């Protein structure tokens, strides 16, 4: 059993042992496996049929033709195995003592996922780096997490509401699953004024990413899906988990049964719809995460016309709309006809620094219908009422304060702060002779490294500068050769990062 040399994953988990180390996975029931060979042959390597729970040992074999050798034993044999790595043996003993399998079969769709979710994978690699360089001053420009404090006008309102919960008159229990009526009205008036969006079409939630998963429950496993390439991983992974895709193909680095719409500099970050296949659902994010590109009015008009012509539904992610600095549309509903073919998802996370508070919303127009003429909003209301008890009342109090006149001015000053960071990053990478995209209408800078692989660039920057970025290939094959750099950061850390980048040859 030889692992692919490029580090691809086997059986849903990556196998990258250090020299002389072993990996164990535990199973149960009858097994008929392998020949250990080499010095671990003899009675340890014979083909056996075990009737008790077993353990699979995989280790590097430097004396044989194949890079990896494996053996399968009953867990009761652990103490008899002649290995020298006491830490691994201890792990085996722990597994043997605690493992107890049910008869429940794993969700086959989860087995299709090619690798760990992108950001935990980055964190794992960052932790390994910190072990190697314990004194390093790490600068995080990777995950898009806000860093600046939430304006006091917002937190004061949240605190006042929270204190009220300790009083007889102020206490409230469950709220409406669809959200606070006043907040729904404020969202409709603040972000969709003049666009025909009604309060009742706004569903307040605990964030856009959670809403993406609820929308997948709404849509089900039988729909066909298109995504931008590159794209935010939640669209793809949730599509795989719900059962909309086929297996992952190593030769293409894509999932079967998914339409990948290339959105790169070669086509101004917008897909060629004349060659795109018809799908039921089109996931589209603008301003885009990760590229930072905001679709123009002309581009979105093409998208809406394409969806209406093909009877498709657009799931439009506008989480970064407040970062738009030019005349690009801030909502899909600015485009005529969009109410008949689009659902919009958005969030307070990047507007008000609510990444930890958790508050967002989804708009489902009452003009959007299924093929059988049933309103989509009816089903989404049922999904929300079944799967969600409503956003936190305290978070919603913060949302209302955010959308007040003074509150919105306060959060926009923070948005301007992040966009100034983006400008500094653009100037730095450009001064290094690199081609840079984004950073004008979104807090992300998309940097191209011609002829390089994204994970290699990620590793080189981390090793040389102790700066964490995001490899573009983690957002899809269309992101290969690029990295995403986040402008979310304290100004002094952004300036320090830029100084480090200028000091090394990338």
From TrEMBL:
Any one Pfam family match given in the protein's UniProt record, by short name: Aminotran_1_2
InterPro entries the UniProt entry points to: Aminotransferase_I/II_large (IPR004839), DapL/ALD1 (IPR019942), PyrdxlP-dep_Trfase (IPR015424), PyrdxlP-dep_Trfase_major (IPR015421), PyrdxlP-dep_Trfase_small (IPR015422)
GO biological-process terms attached to the record: systemic acquired resistance, salicylic acid mediated signaling pathway
Cofactor(s) this protein cannot do without: pyridoxal 5'-phosphate
Segments for region (Disordered): 1-40
GO molecular function: pyridoxal phosphate binding; transaminase activity
Domain of life, source organism: Eukaryota
Residues of the Aminotransferase class I/classII large domain: 137-501
Keywords: Aminotransferase, Pyridoxal phosphate, Transferase
Record-given protein name: Aminotransferase class I/classII large domain-containing protein
């Amino acid at each position: 059993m030889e692992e692919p040399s490029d580090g691809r994953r086997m059986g849903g988990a990556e196998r990258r042992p250090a020299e002389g180390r072993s990996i164990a996975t535990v199973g149960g029931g009858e097994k008929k496996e392998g020949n250990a060979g080499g010095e671990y042959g003899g009675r340890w390597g014979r083909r056996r049929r075990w009737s008790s729970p077993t353990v699979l040992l995989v280790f590097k074999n430097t004396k044989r033709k194949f890079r990896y050798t494996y053996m399968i034993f009953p867990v009761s044999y652990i103490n008899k195995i002649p290995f020298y790595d006491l830490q691994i043996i201890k792990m085996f003993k722990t597994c043997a003592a605690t493992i107890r399998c049910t008869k429940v079969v794993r969700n086959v769709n989860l087995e299709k996922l090619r690798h760990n979710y992108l950001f935990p994978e980055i964190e794992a690699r960052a932790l390994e780096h910190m072990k190697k360089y314990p004194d390093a001053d790490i600068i995080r420009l990777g995950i898009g997490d806000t860093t600046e404090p939430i304006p006091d006008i917002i937190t004061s309102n949240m605190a006042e509401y929270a204190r009220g919960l300790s009083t007889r008159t102020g206490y409230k229990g469950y709220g409406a699953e669809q959200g606070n009526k006043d907040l729904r009205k404020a969202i409709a008036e603040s972000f969709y004024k003049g666009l025909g969006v009604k309060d009742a079409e706004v569903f307040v939630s605990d964030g856009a990413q959670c809403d993406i998963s609820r929308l997948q429950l709404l849509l089900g496993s039988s729909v066909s899906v298109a995504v931008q390439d590159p794209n935010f991983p939640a669209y793809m992974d949730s599509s795989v988990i719900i059962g909309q895709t086929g297996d992952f193909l190593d030769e293409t680095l894509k999932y079967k049964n998914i339409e990948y719409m290339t959105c790169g500099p070669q086509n101004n970050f917008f897909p060629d719809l004349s060659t795109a296949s018809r799908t039921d659902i089109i996931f589209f994010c603008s301003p885009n995460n990760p590229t930072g590109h905001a679709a123009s009015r002309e581009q979105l008009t093409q998208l809406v016309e394409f969806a209406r012509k093909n009877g498709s539904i657009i799931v439009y992610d506008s989480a970064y709309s407040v970062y738009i600095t030019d005349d690009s549309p801030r909502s899909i509903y600015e485009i005529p006809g969009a109410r008949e073919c689009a659902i919009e998802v958005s969030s307070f996370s990047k507007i008000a620094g609510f990444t930890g508070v958790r508050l967002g919303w989804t708009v489902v127009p009452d003009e959007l219908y299924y093929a059988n003429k049933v309103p989509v909003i009816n089903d989404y209301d049922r999904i929300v009422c079944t799967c969600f008890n409503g956003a936190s009342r305290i978070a919603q109090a913060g949302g209302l304060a955010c959308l007040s006149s003074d509150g919105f001015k306060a959060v926009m000053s923070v948005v301007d702060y992040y966009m100034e960071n983006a400008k500094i990053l653009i100037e730095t990478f450009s001064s290094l002779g690199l081609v840079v995209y984004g950073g004008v209408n979104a807090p992300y800078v998309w940097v191209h490294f011609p002829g390089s692989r994204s994970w290699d660039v990620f590793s080189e920057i981390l090793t040389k500068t102790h700066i964490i970025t995001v490899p573009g290939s983690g957002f899809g094959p269309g992101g290969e050769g690029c990295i995403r750099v986040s402008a979310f950061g304290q100004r002094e850390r952004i300036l320090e990062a830029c100084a480090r980048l200028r000091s090394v040859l990338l």
